[in-house]
């Protein structure tokens, strides 16, 4: 790959962008955070000054018109992902879109089609998938050390219920725990098993205090081969961020499965009849690795690790989970 850097434009000043994704781009080997846009000009200027971003815009349209911008990162509320992905694609910009990529699979299909038509790359921003520990975990599974896989359990919960004005609690904006954190264990199971689930059964707590969104959900995904994911996700529960993979001869525990920090121990554990061992993993910035993988696809044509079709498939699962929770029945995924 050449020394050319991918010039990123950031559409919006969301917390995830400020805390994690922009610093990740700045720490990457291939990217430059070149511009940021907000509908509040002062907010854009304050964020740019804080993070050292040279160019600001008071509208998303102005950023998309900037011919110096190669790719955009979209951390907007979920209901805006489709519109701004399509508009970015039509402007010739490659798109890294925050998860969940859309409100449903149909929207994601439209987004994927628009990007394909425009000849631009699209990726859903599941940063954890780029951490090398998941390749290490897949290698351990492939080695047979924990035997045949029998099940996966994942959980991602936090308690932010007092922040009643949070965008997560707007149903029409794509609020709810399945959209916000349930997508992590669901996408992780699909990644680890390299299969698509056949059915979903989910029970959820829909809170009238929070515009009727699911504040907690517990689910079962049935995968081919009689393997299942059990999961729970919540925004009104004590914090957890874990993944467990169970085999016939052992299990793998990932205590900090989705949120990994460079300055903390994010190792995982393998337990078999031989005992329990800690597997050390590199301390890396998974947001930087995500930015580098995306840039390699744009700059040198290296295939994206996860295609737009992966985002479509993940949204089909989320659609089924939400339908199951609302209708209180098992939903087949087609």
TrEMBL record:
Pfam family, one: GFO_IDH_MocA
Signal sequence annotation: none
Annotated GFO/IDH/MocA-like oxidoreductase domain residues: 135-253
Keywords, sorted A to Z: Oxidoreductase
Domain Gfo/Idh/MocA-like oxidoreductase N-terminal span(s) in chain numbering: 6-124
Keyword Oxidoreductase among record annotations: yes
Domain of life assignment: Bacteria
Alphabetized Gene3D superfamilies for the sequence: Dihydrodipicolinate Reductase, domain 2, NAD(P)-binding Rossmann-like Domain
Transmembrane segment boundaries: none
Family stated for the protein in its record: Belongs to the Gfo/Idh/MocA family.
Stated name of the protein: Gfo/Idh/MocA family oxidoreductase
């Amino acid at each position: 790959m050449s020394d050319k850097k991918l010039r990123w434009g950031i559409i919006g000043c969301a917390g995830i962008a400020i805390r994690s994704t922009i610093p990740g781009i700045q720490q990457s080997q291939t990217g430059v955070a070149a511009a940021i846009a907000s509908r509040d000009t002062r907010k854009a200027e304050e964020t740019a000054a804080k993070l050292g971003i040279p160019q600001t815009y008071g509208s998303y349209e102005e950023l998309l018109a900037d011919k110096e911008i190669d790719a955009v990162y979209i951390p907007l509320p979920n209901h805006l992902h489709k519109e701004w992905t399509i508009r970015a694609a039509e402007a010739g910009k490659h798109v890294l879109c925050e998860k969940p990529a859309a409100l449903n699979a149909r929207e994601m299909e439209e987004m994927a089609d628009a990007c394909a038509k425009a000849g631009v790359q699209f990726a859903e921003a599941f940063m954890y998938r780029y951490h090398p520990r998941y390749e290490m975990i897949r290698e351990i599974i492939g080695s047979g050390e924990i035997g045949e896989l029998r099940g996966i359990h994942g959980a991602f919960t936090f308690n932010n219920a007092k922040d009643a004005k949070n965008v997560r609690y707007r149903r029409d904006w794509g609020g709810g725990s399945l959209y916000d954190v349930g997508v992590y264990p669901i996408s992780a199971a699909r990644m680890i098993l390299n299969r698509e689930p056949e059915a979903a059964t989910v029970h959820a707590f829909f809170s009238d205090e929070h515009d009727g969104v699911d504040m907690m959900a517990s689910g079962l995904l049935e995968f081919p081969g009689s393997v299942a994911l059990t999961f729970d996700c919540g925004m009104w529960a004590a914090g957890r961020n874990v993944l467990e993979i169970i085999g016939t001869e052992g299990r793998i525990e990932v205590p900090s499965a989705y949120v990994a920090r460079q300055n903390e121990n994010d190792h995982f554990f393998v337990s078999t009849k031989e005992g329990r061992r800690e597997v050390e993993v590199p301390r890396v910035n998974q947001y930087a690795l995500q930015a580098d993988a995306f840039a390699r696809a744009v700059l040198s044509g290296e295939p994206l690790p996860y295609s737009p079709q992966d985002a479509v498939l993940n949204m089909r699962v989320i659609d089924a989970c939400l339908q199951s929770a609302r209708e209180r029945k098992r939903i087949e995924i087609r």
